[in-house]
């Protein structure tokens, strides 16, 4: 189950869309920097460089210190305030983070801050992010800004213990995660939109519309994408035959080979040879 959980979260990250709204550097926040507990429809990063202050996220209070990076998710109750004349010195930004029609914070839960182990590197990223935001009139500035934003988010998530990133337990999102979990668990079976709809007590037409609205792809497109990713892993990390890999992802060999080539431009055998020639994985593979 843990492996399947990771695959679901990885699929969220693969389709994650980030967009910077604003980024800035603040020498000192003013004495008016305070707000009551409320929610916003955007995310925040705070990179704390100095000073002191107070945050409340949901019911938890925090007193950030220099060297910490805070990720304050959208739709999450947030309050903040100064606590002395030694106010925060920080970089900050607002951004959206969406997977299909969902905010990322609706789909996964994670800690709200990390200890940054390379402050010069992180400060450099935020400096570049701020400059990209200031040059918003440049044709490619959105590309630069969002690329840097992905790098900051990747740094953040990489420094969380894997078990600290959890699938959301909210009832509405739990059903979404159950659907994706069902696909992961039954990948070797002949999955169809009708079978998925029946498993979750939906009509086929409603289920297809519901799924497309959530993930911006049809159920079949998503299932095939998951199958191809699973096949890539098996081709890279095992010596299983092409026939056996095809059966493990619920496909006949001929259809699997055609689908794989349409997705990657390589046949399964060509992909296996190409990956191994680059990574040197010929020895010590798991035998299937």
TrEMBL record:
Asked if the Swiss-Prot or TrEMBL record annotates the protein with the keyword Transcription, the reply is yes
So where does this one cross the membrane? none
HTH araC/xylS-type domain mapped to chain residues: 177-274
Going by the entry's taxonomy, the superkingdom of the source organism is recorded as Bacteria
Q: Which InterPro entries match?
A: AraC-bd, Homeodomain-like_sf, HTH-like, HTH_AraC
Q: Name one Pfam family in it.
A: AraC_binding
Molecular-function GO term, any one: DNA-binding transcription factor activity
The record's annotation in SUPFAM superfamilies points to:
Homeodomain-like, Regulatory protein AraC
What are the record keywords, sorted? DNA-binding, Transcription, Transcription regulation
UniProt entry tagged with the keyword Transcription regulation? yes
Q: Which PANTHER family match?
A: ARAC-FAMILY TRANSCRIPTIONAL REGULATOR, HTH-TYPE TRANSCRIPTIONAL ACTIVATOR RHAS
> What's this protein's name?
HTH araC/xylS-type domain-containing protein
| Organism field | Paenibacillus tyrfis
